[in-house]
């Protein structure tokens, strides 16, 4: 676990494990998506770790599988990058069959040196947070969700700043949700209606109500941007 946390001499620990500290190492984070109230959670995690270890050893004989912080991490020295997402997808599919839960995995990239593994570990957990609302998604790579990750970090900074447009606070949840859907679909009423599972006229009516309450001018790009950011902060 010291390789993941950086709490020990990473280079010394890597050499002790027979790993060259300068060997590029892929880091994959796996979340079993088990209910936390399950009394046999640790047993289930142990079973999953054994399954992952078998698959990982078949892919790379020197692979390491480490349960930590509620996840299971896979360290693959000198990986074949092009095949990594496909291999991870096959692994998650096998885990879903065995565990019966919507297992997900994050391919957080390749650490160029063993000292960079803790950073890749953190990125893996962030990727899993981002894809959690989409259980149909088996695997995500850092490249696929980088924009979402940057946006989340920006929103966290803004959340602590106290800056906001008070007029948007007056929107009831239904109107706020509709306005955000409209903004997310680039002002396409039909697409927003499909997202919300309502008639396009319902979207138009709600947008008029939102405009009357907030005074927002949806033709103004700056007002649209402010509204989108603030509504995301509240979602």
Walk me through this protein's architecture.
The chain has 235 residues and is of the alpha+beta class. The protein has two domains: 143 residues, Alpha-Beta Plaits, CATH 3.30.70; 69 residues, Arc Repressor Mutant, subunit A, CATH 1.10.10. It has ten helices and five strands. The chain has a five-stranded mixed sheet with strand order 2-3-1-4-5. α5 packs across α6 and α7 crosses α10. The protein starts with a helix and ends with a helix. The mean pLDDT is 86.
Task: Pick out its properties.
elongated; 5-stranded mixed beta sheet; single chain; 235 residues; Alpha-Beta Plaits; 2 domains; 5 strands; Arc Repressor Mutant, subunit A; alpha+beta
Give a concise summary.
With 235 residues, the protein is of the alpha+beta class. It has ten helices and five strands; from the N terminus they run ααβαββαβαβααααα.
Quaternary structure classification? single chain
State the end-to-end distance. Answer: 35 Å
Strand neighbour order, sheet with most strands: 2-3-1-4-5
Question: CATH topology of the largest domain, anyone?
Answer: Alpha-Beta Plaits
Q: So how many helices?
A: 10
CATH class of the largest domain: Alpha Beta
Low-pLDDT segments: none
Strand content: 5-15%
Q: Which CATH-level-2 architecture of the largest domain?
A: 2-Layer Sandwich
CATH H-level superfamily title of the largest domain:
Reverse transcriptase/Diguanylate cyclase domain
| C-alpha Rg (nearest Å) | 22 Å
Query: On the 0-100 scale, what is the average pLDDT?
Result: 86
Structural shape: elongated
The counted number of beta strands is: 5
Structural class: alpha+beta
């Amino acid at each position: 676990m010291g390789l993941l946390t950086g709490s020990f001499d990473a280079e010394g620990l890597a050499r002790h494990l027979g790993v060259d500290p300068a060997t590029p190492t892929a880091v994959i984070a796996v979340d079993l998506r088990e209910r936390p109230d399950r009394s046999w959670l640790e047993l289930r995690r142990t079973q999953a770790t054994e399954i992952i270890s078998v698959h990982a050893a078949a892919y790379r004989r020197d692979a390491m599988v480490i349960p930590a912080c509620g996840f299971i991490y896979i360290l693959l020295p000198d990986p074949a990058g092009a095949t990594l997402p496909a291999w991870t997808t096959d692994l998650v599919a096998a885990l879903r069959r065995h565990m019966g839960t919507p297992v997900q995995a994050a391919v957080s990239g390749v650490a160029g040196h063993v000292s960079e593994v803790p950073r890749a570990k953190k990125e893996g957990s962030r990727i899993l947070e981002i894809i959690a609302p989409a259980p149909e998604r088996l695997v995500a790579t850092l490249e696929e969700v980088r924009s979402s990750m940057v946006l989340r970090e920006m929103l966290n900074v803004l959340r602590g700043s106290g800056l906001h447009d008070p007029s948007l606070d007056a929107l009831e949840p239904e109107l706020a949700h509709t306005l955000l859907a409209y903004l997310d679909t680039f002002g396409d009423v039909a697409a927003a209606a499909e997202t919300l599972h309502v008639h396009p006229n319902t979207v138009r009516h709600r947008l008029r109500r939102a405009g009357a309450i907030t005074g927002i001018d949806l033709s103004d790009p700056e007002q649209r941007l402010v509204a989108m950011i603030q509504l995301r902060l509240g979602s």
